[in-house]
Design brief:
This protein is an alpha/beta fold. Helices cover 19% and strands 29% of the residues. The structure holds flavin-adenine dinucleotide. The site of flavin-adenine dinucleotide has 26 residues, from strand 9, strand 10 and helix 3.
Length: 330
């Protein structure tokens, strides 16, 4: 019999029982669906040891690496300390050390934290301000000695959190930060695979992190970035991207403008259309899609139709509705 620890509670998993069956027997309200490892509704994470491999069947490699597993097909082989995806531990407090406009609407925010804090570039965290208002933002940098987290935050008209970050947050202020979440990040292992990255607006944030990570880890396959906006005001880090193309033969950058005015050295069209039209087949490619949910979902479908395997498509859709998260103060 194995011990299952969840928060402060400890349960005994009977022989032949799955983790889900144990939790349901103990009347713990956890989400579940098919109970056959297909719907992934009972996704959980092991906080200490890797879960049994058989409990990770069908999960994305990035989730497997983070010790996620499906409770309904998990027969524990040892004691486990587990959590639901949204209950993964305490928040940390981080200091605002940099605020700089990248475009008239997008600001670079850099926070400094006290280690330990683990993340993959491209994952997201929830940032919480002192009154409890919380929103999700994607991490644009890799884990380095500086112990910093970089975000690109677009101001939404009347957006509560984004406007506050742009107008009121100042250097030295503190924000609470949840543990990093999400499967949209780079994993080494298939270094020769072709990568296609498509983003709109501040969707460049996770892509920038993923590209930096892939290049730092010696990815040798071609890496194609398509960054799109309606007009030139919406594109940023253009010089940095061009410098990367000079430095790495395998990195290719296409800044895309979908409006009427096309600046020199930019391509006319929507980033996702141009990316999809650039290759005959996406079979064998690894795809990263970030930013506007409609663009992300549409391109995911098209990439699959064009031959990419679903397991090789990583998305970070910036849903606004779903991020109306507030927690009571304190
Ligand atoms: C996984 C994830 C990652 C993300 N990463 C990023 C990122 O890296 N960069 C980034 O810029 N964003 C990112 N986002 C989006 C971000 O979380 C916020 O949703 C966004 O910044 C808007 O928050 P806000 O508080 O400013 O706007 P909100 O106050 O939430 O408002 C959003 C919009 O709805 C309108 N609105 C608000 N209330 C109402 C109402 N009652 N009726 C009608 N309209 C209303 C507002 O005018 C505004 O235009 C991400 C989202 C997710 C889910």
């Amino acid at each position: 019999m194995q011990r299952i620890t969840m928060g402060d509670a400890i349960f005994l998993c009977q022989p032949d029982e799955t983790v889900l069956q144990t939790l349901l027997r103990e009347n713990i309200p956890v989400p579940f669906g098919c109970q056959q490892g297909a719907c992934q509704a009972c996704l959980m994470r092991s906080l200490d040891n890797p879960p049994p491999e058989s409990a990770q069947l069908g999960l994305k490699d990035t989730l497997q690496k983070q010790n996620y597993f499906l409770a309904c097909i998990c027969h524990p082989e040892q004691d486990m300390n587990i959590a639901l995806p949204n209950q993964q531990g305490a928040m940390m407090v981080a200091d605002v050390v940099k605020k700089q406009l990248l475009t008239p609407d997008i600001i670079q925010l850099v926070l400094k934290y006290q280690p330990p804090f683990n993340f993959f570039a491209g994952q997201f965290v929830n940032l919480q301000r002192p009154d409890g208002l919380m929103r999700s933002y994607s991490i644009a940098n890799i884990q380095l000695a500086q112990n910093s987290l970089e975000f690109h935050i677009r101001r939404l008209p009347n957006g509560q959190f984004s406007s506050w970050v742009h107008d009121e947050l100042v250097l030295g202020d503190q924000l609470s930060v949840t543990p990093a979440q999400g499967a949209c990040h780079y994993l080494p292992g298939r270094a020769e695979q072709a990568l296609m990255l498509v983003g709109t607006g501040s969707g460049l944030a996770p892509l920038y992190g993923i590209i930096t990570d892939a290049l730092a880890q010696g990815h040798s396959g071609p890496i194609h970035l398509y960054h799109g906006s309606r007009d030139l005001n919406g594109l940023y880090l253009i010089d940095e991207m061009r410098e990367l193309t000079d430095k790495f033969d395998n990195f290719h950058y296409t800044p895309c403008l979908s409006g009427l005015d096309i600046a020199p050295d930019h391509v006319k069209g929507r980033a996702n259309d141009l990316a999809l039209a650039s290759v005959a087949s996406l079979k064998g490619w690894r795809i990263f899609l970030c930013g506007h949910p409609e663009m992300v979902n549409q391109t995911k479908r098209m990439a699959f139709i064009k031959g990419a395997s679903i397991g090789d498509i990583y998305v970070d859709a910036f849903h606004v509705e779903q991020s109306f998260l507030t927690l009571p103060k304190g």
